[in-house]
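Good morning N.,

You mentioned wanting to compare the apo and holo forms, so I went ahead and generated the holo version with NDP. This is what I fed in:
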Amino acid sequence: MSTVAEIFKTMEYGPAPESDKEALAWLGKHERVFGHYIDGAWTEPGDTFDVVNPATAKVIARVTNGTTDDVDAAVDAAKRALPGWRALSAHARARYLYAIARGVQKHSRLLAVLESMDNGKSIRETRDIDVPLVARHFYHHAGWAQLLETEFAGYEGVGVVGQIIPWNFPLLMLAWKIAPALAAGNTVVLKPAEFTPLTAMAFAEIVDEIGLPPGVVNIVNGHGETGAAIVDHPDVDKIAFTGSTEVGRIIRKATAGSGKKLSLELGGKSPFIVYDDADLDSVVEGVVDAIWFNQGQVCCAGSRLLVQESIQDRLIAKLRARMERLRVGSPLDKAVDMGAIVAPVQLERIKGLVQQGVDEGATMWQPSWACPTDGYFYPPTLFTDVQPSSTIAQVEIFGPVLVAMSFRTPEESVALANNTPYGLAASVWTESINLALDIAPKIKAGVVWVNSTNLFDASAGFGGYRESGFGREGGKEGMWEYLVRSRGTGRAASRRVKQAPSRAAAGAKSAARGSSSESPAIDRTPKLFIGGKQARPDGAYTRRIQSPSGATVGESPEGNRKDIRNAVEAAHAAKGWSRATGHNRAQILYYIAENLAARADEFAARIDAMTEVGRRNAAAEVDASISRLFSYGAWADKYDGAVHNVPIRGVALAMNEPIGVVGIACGDTHPLLGMVSLVAPAIAMGNTTIVVPSEPHPLSATDFYSILETSDVPAGVINIVTGARDTLATVLAEHDDVDAVWYVGARDGARAVEFASASNMKRTWTFLDDRDWLDRDEGEGREFLRAATQVKNIWVPYGE
Ligand code: NDP
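and this is what came out, ligand included:
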């Protein structure tokens, strides 16, 4: 028997297990076998696969592998349910979401235990983080459902939404997907991850219990192929995916040209940056949360510790001491810090990458204690002496493995932080508010936490930059992912004004050059516009530009791949534009408008000569272009971000940041206005651009150079390459230094752009050439500004 003194010395924790009785009873009720939940009913189990508890390596249930027939049935149910769900009042949908939130709370204990058993994460996390956040998400989105008609006027739900989620936060990812989709008036087909389907099954029961109309939520279990069948289904209008960048890329390609809306939340290698004035004890607890939360199986895990050199040794020593006291064990033990890794395949992946780190010369450190051996456990691991280019510093390990590197200056810390193709999240630790708020905007990441980490809330958007994907989940910004402009708005008008006279037969005898009486009859030497200068096309070819009736209007240069590369380089060199103030950018947009107004007649004559729309219509196009430039001059300093109302003592600043270098391929109609309508919002928000003007009518763009030259537009902010639109647009989409491509044209061209964009997961915005550019509602506004920006949420807690 041990004495009190001895107990004090060892201070061993006793076991504090959470009961699994209720969860086992629930599994028993279902005889531990599950089909799918389709059209408000459970399907009979079919071919099943095992669901294993990672902490015990024992099979706890079997789940049906969804076939394409199952997916068809689910999509069909969702499609049939859509009109009824949409026809409900916003308030009625809000009440359903509210009821789901209540249902989640009512069953919170079952859900928390089931999640721990299914995923291996600790009950402390499922009970205190996952499940409360799930309820919060449904409450918050009940609010957006209620406010839909006023806050999103002119928009409607996209339709049937296919949603595919990973295993690391099974129920939370389900909530992040389903809540905004339903709030926006969509119906859904969701596939849980094969490793972790059980809480989705319990969720289906809740949905059933509250009487959600059949078909509004459908859940189909299965492997990757089941996910692929959802992605490929022609009746699915949007795909929302969370998972690996690799599968994200496959989905980007598979949906290319399909017209499906897409949001991707992918991997990361997020930096956790510690400056020399940081409070190191808080930092240590922060690191525990950043990389050992959910065993490091977190897309935004702070997996790269970047420490200022002067404090490195002290911090590493403190960290090792803390790691020595972490507890790994049964996820249902309430005193455990880390549970089990989700599956043997993931455990092997972690082991393999750790071995690679050792082989590449880094120093590996693990605590002295041993992990349990009956399940899939892995100890917290710290690497030092890591080269920034080494595998473990670059690849997402998705396990409890932290790699530490040092830096000397804040500039170096930013360079190191951004030295990754990802851009999901970052933590910045310093007692200096000046430093924190100087660094946060410089980091390429969708979320930045100041003196904190892994904070999530339904009111603040979450999502990535660069290869971490696009789109946001949570906040008002997340709602836009599930909405489209109300069908019918302005479309009829578009068809009315669209000027599409058929081209006269090729080879028709051309009328006199500059046939329109007032267009200049001078033979101009056609060039491209790159880096603020007129540049000869690399191929030295030009093409003859004809009017619809066959009159030769002029010549335009034939840009090629090399010209695009030069233009991209120039656009990169002009990135200082993103740091210009909104006021400065506004001044330049107004100046362009002013110079265009001074030459309005000349531009109208040119439009008329190229398109033969008549002088009056051409003049209206020029006027609309001037007005549009004014609109974005106005917006340049007014497209504010938001301060989200997150439930911490602090604020989350949602900042609209430019995307970077944007390629813009214009449609054929309205050669001047179509171009201005796209370029103006892009540059108003601080992007630099490479523009491919209207292919049949490019001369308004080549005339535009001289306007740009006299309007103080910095070199490289607008580059113009004329030529074969679809070919040049694809070159832009393939280019790894282009961050976004906008494309207006035919479906085939859109497909090519979207497919090629998968190379660096650049953002794409494609639409058919049927927009009424003259209509302010359709041709300008927030839709364009949203496309020109990405939201960074900077969390700043305050108080001592
Ligand atoms: P995946 O990206 O493969 O899986 C995510 C989801 O997509 C799962 O539901 C999966 O089904 C499904 N899926 C797989 N292939 C396809 C496809 N071709 N079309 C449509 N859906 C598909 O991640 P894994 O679970 O395989 O994990 C692999 C690695 O990905 C991890 O080691 C980790 O590095 C990373 N990862 C990143 C996550 C993140 O949040 N960033 C989350 C999960 C993993 P199924 O479950 O049957 O595979």
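Residues 490-521 have pLDDT under 50 and may be disordered.

Happy to go through it together on a call whenever suits you.

Best,
F.
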